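Quick one - inputs below.
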Amino acid sequence: MYSLMLLNGGIGSRVAAGRPKQFIDVAGRPIIVYSLVAADAVPEITQIVLNFPEGFREEIERLVTDYAIQTPVTYVPAGESRHESVAAMLPACESDHVLIHESARPMVTAADFKQLVTDPRDNVSLMLPIPFTVAPVDPDSGLVTGSLERDRLRNVQLPQKFLKADLADAHRKAAEQQLVFTEDATLCAVTGHDVHFIDGQDTNLKVTTPTDVKLAGFLLGGDEDV
Amino acid sequence: MSKSILITGASKGIGAATAERFFYADNDITDFILLARQSEDFEKLIGRLTDDNPYGKRVLPHVIDLNDRARIVGLMRDVMAEAGKVDYLVNNAGYTAPCALQQIEFADFERTIGVNLYAPFTIVQELLHCGNTFELIVNIASTAGMGGRPGWLTYGASKAAVINMSEAMKEELSIYGTRVVCISPGRCATDLRRKLAPDEDPSTIMQPEQVASVIDMLTSEVGTLVDSQNLVVRQ
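Output:
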């Protein structure tokens, strides 16, 4: 059984919608609803740990009620950063295995969660091959500093799954070494835990900019056969 | 796996024909939640289904005036308690009091909208709030909702709204895998049609059983290929 940590605490300043982006309507409904409904259809997910930006708990609870989410939900206040949020949500997870997803990725499906749940390995992340060239640079000098082999790089996506003990150990080590990561697959890998990857979909975009909102709305508006 | 069907306006016409078509077939629909106002027709239908039940199906009748929104809300909770789920929903109940604009009683307009539009909306919303996910929702609109006709202002407006509501429902409920189909029958030999066209010979127009056969098709494998917001059926 799995506890799903659904990250929902961002304020969405880049989307510039004037409110947390998880309340932005995409194809007619708040973006967070897509992740909640997808997770609710996976029997192996027996708990959703949901964080919320300060002042928005009531609104989040109303969405969970209105959409009749059947999986028990545990609410945790959002941290100052994503790293802090995961560290704060982890103790609330009741299962030995955890999944991490973020509401800003509304294209997630129950099949995505199922794919991770049925994978026999403990720590697995969806990751996307990079079809373009990425260069290392020195932002201060404005110089390109070398080259990277894109075959050895992946775009880190969510959802991910971890053994709760491994993730807790990674966060403990990060706290000791005062390390802050922007996501947990690389955090676990750097702190000595094997993390595997499986190919994700390019449609699993993270809604970050107003253009992303339009693109997600187009993708979620229906698979029109035109 | 056994399935359940909820049909409104089940006492006669398209509702009764749909109930009987599914009831007297060897299929996977075992629970029949039938809603109608109190009437002799409804009592007779329930008696017929109870007395002649070759496949041992469950008949769950409920007398209700669908203009009573508060009662619908309570009833949907009862329905979930007794049936556990609603796989197929046929929003069939309809009301009309044809009248020229200058003579329309506003209470009649409100009742028309209440029964034809607010009731199907409330049934769907309440069952969703109860955690139900539908396989198929069929909303019965009318070709009268596709173009205004003199004397049918209230009825036509309510059915136009049902057609539009169905389009929105189809999009919104796709996240659950629910199919939503709106059927707009043309002239069909029902009591409601008799009110709209009292001089018409009902034997010359489409019969309720023919509309029921279209609804039956929608529950079949081939029905899953029907992708239409408004399926016009007419003879």
